[in-house]
């Protein structure tokens, strides 16, 4: 029995972040300003995109992506049910209908086949998720979406530091949405980002996050001459603050180490659990590398103990694990929908759980977690 509780996730926040936030406060410029602009540039270049537009959350980013693509009531948007509920909710924010696609058992991601199976003439967009950091097959899905003439939005909330075909997952995306919630690898407290390559799209997204103004409040403030702004369309206040961006700029410098550390710990989990029948940990797909933002394991029948009992036993042993990724179609908020059959989604959400994996996890913590799992195996 370990002396302390082992958390499932701990954000990496240090003295540098505290100082950066304090500097932003002392500068007197706390709303969206120069630090946000720098954070956008540095983040976009890190994930392989030309432009970054910082917003208040990934949920806001997904919403703006659909506004940008002019998705409207009556339109259908294909999304995985197997995702945090924000992915499906964004579709409802623009009055469109989410249509759930099933996922692949190994990666938890939608595929060309699962999306194609629910495509209709009303499909106006697809949101594919790099679930838990595991990259979906970007070559296959981006090609298929282009062939279908349907824009592909990438929910990359969990995927900073993941790669596909040797490049960061943001490279080559039409539009990608990222999260800086403390549950993700990089955090700004709350926060999100959109990345795009098209400069006109970037300009429109900047306007959409700031009330539809043709000139940002920051630019207006900096100008020596009075600038009369105008409001070109009805939009939103989805801005990030300069305090958040100051923290984010420090966090960016940690990403490479955070990912390397997680991948090393994940490899150790793989080794220690390799001979346990019926326990299937997530791993890299053939086409890329995950950042292991979530280390989930599937509990198959041969294991002998079901998922909820494993969670209870881990909790009793001081290990804070979590149920696996949720399925939106099983939540009361979506009870009014009749989804297509989603057998893999239902199996994964019922049978998977997320194990502790973070920078503060020690090998002895890991041995403790593995010990509980080995003891429970049939
Ligand atoms: C966390 C998450 C979101 C929401 O991110 P916020 O920044 O909290 O709004 C959306 N999609 C996925 C897949 C996520 O994991």
Notes on the structure:
The chain is α/β, with parallel strands linked by helices. The chain folds into 2 domains: 15-252, Aspartate Aminotransferase, domain 2; 255-376, Aspartate Aminotransferase, domain 1, CATH 3.90.1150.10. The chain is built from 13 helices and 14 strands. It has helices at 15-27, 34-47, 58-68, 86-93, 112-116, 138-148, 199-208, 217-222, 242-252, 255-273, 307-316, 343-351, 363-376; strands at 51-55, 76-80, 97-101, 123-129, 152-155, 163-164, 167-168, 175-179, 192-196, 279-281, 288-289, 295-299, 322-323, 352-355. The strands form 3 sheets. Strands 1-9-8-5-4-2-3 form a 7-stranded mixed beta sheet, with helices on both faces. Strands 10-12-14-13 form a 4-stranded antiparallel beta sheet. Strand 4, helix 6 and strand 5 form a beta-alpha-beta unit. Helix 1 packs antiparallel against helix 9 (242-252), helix 2 packs parallel to helix 9 and helix 3 packs across helix 4 (86-93). The two termini are 21 Å apart. 48% of the residues are buried. The structure holds pyridoxal-5'-phosphate. Pyridoxal-5'-phosphate (PLP) binds at residues 57-59, 83-84, 86-87, 129, 155, 157-158, 179, 181, 192.
The structural domain count equals 2
* Topology pattern, helix = H, strand = E: HHEHEHEHEHEEEEEHHHHEEEHEHEH
Low-confidence segments? none
| Large-scale geometry | globular
Helix content: 25-40%
Indicate the structural class.
alpha/beta
Distance between the termini: 21 Å
Tally of DSSP helical segments? 13
Widest beta sheet: strand line-up: 1-9-8-5-4-2-3
CATH superfamily of the largest domain: Type I PLP-dependent aspartate aminotransferase-like (Major domain)
CATH classification class of the largest domain = Alpha Beta
